[in-house]
Write a structure and sequence with these properties.
- The structure is a single chain.
- By secondary structure, this protein is an alpha/beta fold.
- Helix content is 49%, strand content 16%.
- The chain is built from 11 helices and 10 strands.
- A hairpin with a 2-residue loop joins strand 1 and strand 2.
- The radius of gyration is 19 Å and the shape is globular.
- The two termini are 28 Å apart.
- Bound molecules: 4-(N,N-dimethylamino)cinnamoyl-COA.
């Protein structure tokens, strides 16, 4: 498949997706959103078909200045409410696809992650940031609000009070502050960003793929449920994995003092 706005690279067990619109600091237009949907759909199908050659998605921005500097303001200025509704629906579908992807999705935030860019990063499972990264929800400066899940995902990550402060001031924060408030999981030197993410995917690749998919699903779904229902979800997923060959292999390998060979079955 060829893409106009994305660069795709498979390296070891990682699929690296770079958003590549350097003239607009990788801003999200309809083409980017549509192409991200295609990439995520294809990857989900691949994993669901039992092809575990890709064990993690790394989403980043091309170049060294921006992850994504927001939704494309020039494109949005021209939209009527119907078009804005379609854009919003497509954007939210990408968020759902990232959450439902049966492998971890890591945002490697290499520069500006503003507006829709911050929202896209938060739609990934977690964020690894370069020391040069800057985060913010500056939509109010354009007299709109976050429209790609930002108000809700930011609140869940950093708490209501901090989320409100960021959304009403439009203030940009640096990577160290994003780390401090729990928006980013780690901050690393710019030249270490990709290797750090590749290292995380390599660690995941040693684990049973069914367990990884189950862990991600239970964590995401459970976060939206009352504790009792969430715990029930965990019990069922935990028990379900005992029907897999990988569970036997993982435990036998431990007892045999050898490395396991997982097959995703
Ligand atoms: N859209 C379009 N072009 C952009 C852009 C953007 N968001 N951000 C930057 N650019 C373009 C600039 O216009 C400029 O183009 P030329 O003038 O060279 O043609 C080029 O990128 C370089 O930008 P600057 O010259 O401004 O570079 P600086 O280093 O001076 O400043 C900056 C970098 C990131 C601080 C600045 O560019 C900036 O403030 N950009 C806008 C950031 C922003 O307000 N972002 C929020 C947009 S609102 C949704 C999805 C998302 C959203 C809503 C719905 N659905 C899918 C549901 C969210 C809305 C937003 O994101």
């Amino acid at each position: 498949m060829s893409y106009e706005t994305l660069e795709i690279e498979d390296r070891d067990a990682a699929r690296i997706v770079r958003i590549n619109r350097p003239k607009a600091l990788n801003a999200l237009n309809q083409a980017v959103v549509a192409e991200l949907s295609r990439v995520l759909e294809a990857l989900t199908e691949q994993v669901q078909a039992g092809d575990f050659s890709v064990r993690g998605l790394i989403l980043t921005g091309a170049g060294d200045k921006a992850f994504v500097a927001g939704a494309d303001i020039a494109a949005m200025r021209e939209m009527d409410p119907d078009q804005a509704m379609r854009f919003a629906s497509q954007g939210h579908a990408v968020g759902e696809m990232l959450a439902n992807l049966p492998i971890p999705a890591i945002a490697a935030v290499n520069g500006f992650a503003l507006g829709g860019g911050c929202e896209l990063a938060m739609a990934c499972d977690f964020i690894i940031a370069s020391e040069k990264a800057k985060f913010g929800q500056p939509e109010v400066k354009l007299a709109v609000i976050p429209g790609f899940g930002g108000t809700q995902r930011l609140t869940r990550r950093v708490g209501l009070a901090r989320a409100i402060e960021l959304c009403v001031t439009g203030e940009m924060i640096r990577a160290d502050e994003a780390l401090r408030i729990g928006l980013a999981n780690r901050v690393v030197a710019p030249e270490q960003l990709l290797d750090t993410c590749l290292g995380i995917v390599a660690a995941v690749a040693k684990m049973g793929p069914l367990a990884i998919a189950a862990a991600k699903r239970v964590l995401h779904q459970g976060a939206e449920l009352p504790l009792e229902a969430a715990n029930q979800l965990e019990i069922e997923a935990f028990a379900g994995l005992f029907a897999s060959a990988d569970q036997r292999e993982g435990m036998q390998a431990f007892l045999d003092k050898r490395e396991p060979t997982f097959t995703g079955k």
